[in-house]
Specification:
288 residues; Alpha/beta knot; 2 domains; two-stranded antiparallel sheet; 11 strands; elongated; binds adenine
Length: 288
Amino acid sequence: MNFHVLTLFPEMIENGMATSITGRAIEKGAISIEAINIRNFAFNKHQSVDDYPYGGGAGMLMQAEPVYLAWEAAVAGIRERRSHTATGEVHSGAGEIIGEMSPGIVIKEKNQVIAGEMPPCTIYLTPQGKTFSQEQAREFAQSEDLILLCGHYEGIDERVLEEIVTDYVSIGDYVLTGGELAAMVVMDAVSRMVPGVLGNDESAGTESFSAGLLEYPQYSRPQVWHGREVPEVLMSGHHANVDAWRREQSIIRTVQRRPDLLKTADLSNKEWNFVRQLKKQIKEEKNE
Ligand code: ADE
């Protein structure tokens, strides 16, 4: 998985992603992160990338051209890399069709529009986007390359968005000062889905959202802390009972904290009855 981030603050992206699990994934080569500074594509001597909005109004807008040129540079880099990693003969140097990548992607010289090739997935981080979810992270993780566009000021000239953006993504109903933190949230969640990023101890499958249920509570040593005991069943060594207890706790937790998630949960009839019973109990407690 190769992330290409178009940003005015490349050091924020580089530093933010260089630690912990994503940092290790970069070192191992499971993911790569390229932060492209949009300011390097400013076409005036002051290297400014913003201007006043037509029609007036507060704030400044990021201009179309530097954003477009930065995006073109990212796309050119992707094509260049793909042309080297494709199977078979690919480079002729003359611009004619020079090879076929598996499966069936036709390659010409870099920077040329390639008929039939899908444009790389280009995500614009904006509070106006679709709310990011685990399901979307899973979909994005299928791509070999993701371009993430971070806005600043009051937004970006609409015309360049129309030309390059494939997905509008929000990380929640609040407004950040820029798209960088949102881009890092998306990259972090997507990276976890990439094979080789999580170690054996950090499985991506059995945790919150994987089955429409929140994760069960977990405990480690000591057995008693601040007078609170670890639930007895977890000390029993009886795996079937532990699994049943955890499943029950997941259901209780989801009903209490995120009942909206139950819409997508895959439960047995017996478990649905349990959900109804829990909901009734919660309602009665509220009315007391
Ligand atoms: N940029 C500013 N606010 C944002 C949000 N909530 N999600 C994604 N990008 C943003």
